[in-house]
Specification:
Helices cover 37% and strands 15% of the residues. By secondary structure, the protein is of the alpha/beta class. The protein folds into two domains: 199 residues, Glycogen Phosphorylase B (Rossmann fold, 3-Layer(aba) Sandwich); 179 residues, Rossmann fold, CATH 3.40.50.2000. Helix 8 links the parallel strand 6 and strand 7. The radius of gyration is 23 Å and the shape is globular. It starts with a strand and ends with a helix. About 4% of the residues have low confidence.
């Protein structure tokens, strides 16, 4: 008898965000392995990172339900506008702290408390919790709940639905929750509440999945009483996504093109890399060219184009806005090498690394030696150049890449047989589900 799985995936096609592909790949393969899959998502209501071409990848057997996302900050703004309009700065900056007049300190404290509570457990899906629970009332009771996060609101939805239906819950952590290096806690209250909610989710999960061994070790250290139910299933790639990818390149074949696809933010700063690039160019690596695809936040109070211009790199570094998944894979395939920024995330592996492996490209990776990403790359020891996040070390990696360019050849990972191919990873997930039912 087929069992019914409810997958809680905030990002799912047509959303093209990075987190989409793990959930989509699992859903597709679970169906072929004999599971009935229903997805509860917010995808139809997400305006950013939309890629309508992904819709064809959803098997017809997978039923997708979508719950809207209500932004509490917008509701608060509308409520406040009845008395006093928000300033343009306050409307645009969720994290801005406005100084309250002395005579209105009580109202200011209330406002601050409300805004603080709305940041729990995350900023992006805080308005999805209640709509998702409401939408779930329309879904027939499943046999098992699987939730994927971030955003961690998905785990809260899973926890509350488990209590409602009294069925098993498997929680999948693509990133750590309270130990996420990109998570900035606005107050001690937020941190304490997040830790409380994280412990609740751990307690009520039948199995907990971490996507790196390092993350699993961290979970076991923090929550030793739940260590027996922690499993590891890494990120990966879907082999069929690469079968019809043709190389695309708008750079001269005489130059050596390095590409980084995806956003740059937080600790993943490109500034040391840009300084190292300037030094490498001046030291004879004149054919290096860089293409950065995607959005980039300001670093050291300046935009990335400003940094590039100040370093005199306009000729060597090009920026492109985000593009569709198939186009970005084609651009990556047409490159001579691929860049990986993984600074400050030693227990996490950027999902794009697995796509790099599937494409078989040379990789220049920047991060900590003792990291999950470097553990993955050690499996292709002759095809990557690792650098600590220092200018000198990055210069060394760039020179090694440059000087050995004639010997570079795309390496074969044997995609279908790779341990990172999604069908093999889904088999492990299916075994986790079976394990829950055998308890």
């Amino acid at each position: 008898m087929k069992r019914n799985v409810l997958m809680l995936a905030y990002a799912f096609p047509p959303c093209g965000a990075t987190g989409t592909f793990r959930s989509l790949g699992f859903a597709r393969n679970l169906v072929s392995m004999g599971w009935n899959v229903t997805v509860l998502s917010a995808s139809e209501y997400l305006k950013e990172d939309r890629d309508e071409s992904l819709l064809v990848k959803i098997p017809p057997e997978v039923r997708v339900w979508n719950a809207p996302v209500y932004d509490p900050s917008v509701i608060w703004a509308k409520f406040k506008s009845k008395n006093k309009p928000l300033s343009p700065v306050a409307e645009q900056n969720e994290y801005s702290v406005q100084k309250e007049p002395v005579h209105n300190q009580t109202a200011g404290r209330i406002k601050y408390l409300i805004k603080t509570l709305l940041k729990i457990p995350d900023n992006f899906a805080k308005g999805w919790l209640i709509p998702a629970l409401k939408e779930a009332r329309k879904i027939p009771r499943p046999d098992l709940i699987y939730s994927s996060a971030p955003p961690f609101t998905s785990h809260l939805v899973g926890y509350l639905l488990k209590l409602r239906w009294n069925i098993p819950l498997v929680t999948d952590f693509r990133d750590p929750w309270t130990d996420n290096p990109f998570r900035i806690f606005s107050s001690g209250t937020v941190r304490r509440w997040d830790r409380f909610l994280e412990k609740k989710v751990f307690k009520h999960s039948n199995l907990i999945i971490a996507n790196t061994p390092q993350m699993a070790d961290l979970f076991r250290q923090k929550n030793p009483r739940y260590s027996a139910k922690i499993r590891v299933i890494t990120n990966g790639f879907d082999a069929e996504d690469f079968h019809d990818i043709l190389p695309l390149r708008d750079e001269s074949a005489d130059n050596l093109l390095l590409i980084h696809p995806g956003s740059l933010y937080g600790k993943r700063s490109p500034l040391n890399f840009l300084s190292a690039l300037k030094d490498a160019l001046e030291d004879g690596c004149a054919r290096l060219r860089i293409l950065l695809i995607g959005s980039c936040e300001h670093f050291e109070n300046k935009s990335l184009p400003e940094h590039i211009h100040d370093l005199g790199l306009d000729r060597y570094v090009k920026l492109r806005p985000p593009v569709g998944r198939k186009e970005i894979l084609s651009l990556m395939k047409g490159a001579d090498g691929l860049l990986l920024f993984s600074q400050g995330t030693h227990i996490q592996v950027p999902a794009k690394l697995f796509e790099y492996l599937a494409l078989g490209k040379q990789i220049i990776a920047i991060g900590e030696n003792n990291s999950a990403a470097n553990d993955i790359l050690r499996q292709v020891p002759d095809n990557y150049f690792w650098a600590e996040n220092t200018v000198d070390d990055i210069v060394r990696a760039l020179k090694n890449f440059y000087l050995n360019a004639d010997a570079h050849k795309d390496f074969s990972t044997g995609m279908e047989n790779s341990p990172f191919e999604r069908s093999k990873l889904t088999q492990r997930l299916s075994e986790c589900f079976q394990e829950v039912f055998s308890e």
